Amino acid sequence: MAVPNVVDQATQRTTIMASPERCFDVAVDFEQYPVWARDVKKARILSRDRDDRAVDVEYWVTAMGRSTTYTLRYFYGSDPLRLAWRLKRGDATTRLDGEYTFVAVPGESDTTEVSYQLTVELAVPLPGFVKRRAESRIMHTALDELKAHVEAGAGS
After folding, report:
1. Of 37, 43, 64, 86, which sits most exposed with the smallest number of CB within 10 A?
2. pLDDT by residue (tens digit) across 34-66?
3. Does residue 121 contact residue 7 with C-beta atoms inside 8 Å?
4. What whole-number distance in Å separates Cα of residue 72 and Cα of residue 16?
5. Is there a contact between 54 and 63 (Cβ–Cβ < 8 Å)?
6. pLDDT of residue 134
7. Radius of gyration of the chain, Cα coordinates, nearest whole angstrom
8. From residue 131, how far is each of 88, 93, 150 by CA, in Å?
9. Are 97 and 75 in contact (CB under 8 A)?
10. Which residues, in sequence order, are bridge partners of residue 62?
């Protein structure tokens, strides 16, 4: 009897000592991800919207001894400090959907609370501890490596 693949969802938050706009600008500079996101080896913008924002971005990633590629479709809502994405195609995942939100800490214009939500479904069922390790690594990149890059002032 086949074990159904489980969809994993996670949310984490961190505080970054920079404005929400600065954090957002780094998050949407997809082609620079290989500079600060250790596991991302290449990011290529495949399409843009009429405002010249990236819509479809293809990634080449190596993590835990495995290489994978996937394409994400990005959505920019009416709130300019929210960035959502959905998996368009991937070789190791059937779902890789998420969202960043960047909110100024009240009374501190150069401090941002960043929320990161992620929903992952792998193409192949894996043991729980392996999935948790992969999820932890993605969260680390999404928040800790982003924070380090932004606070170092790189690319500003």
Report:
1. 64
2. 999 999 999 999 999 999 999 999 999 987 678
3. yes
4. 25
5. no
6. 63
7. 16
8. 21, 12, 28
9. no
10. 67
pLDDT one-digit tens code per residue, 96-142: 899 999 999 999 979 999 999 998 877 666 656 565 666 666 676 78
| Sign (positive or negative) of CA dihedral 115, 139, 60, 72 | negative
- State the Cα–Cα distance between residues 120 and 44, nearest whole angstrom: 22
The DSSP letter of residue 51 is: T
Helix (H) or strand (E) holding 143: none
Three-class secondary structure of residue 33 per DSSP:
helix
Strands in the chain per DSSP E: 8-16, 40-48, 54-63, 66-75, 82-90, 93-105, 108-122
DSSP for 92-110 reads SEEEEEEEEEEEEETTEEE
Bridge partners, 71 (sequence order): 58, 89
Tokens of 142: 């999404």
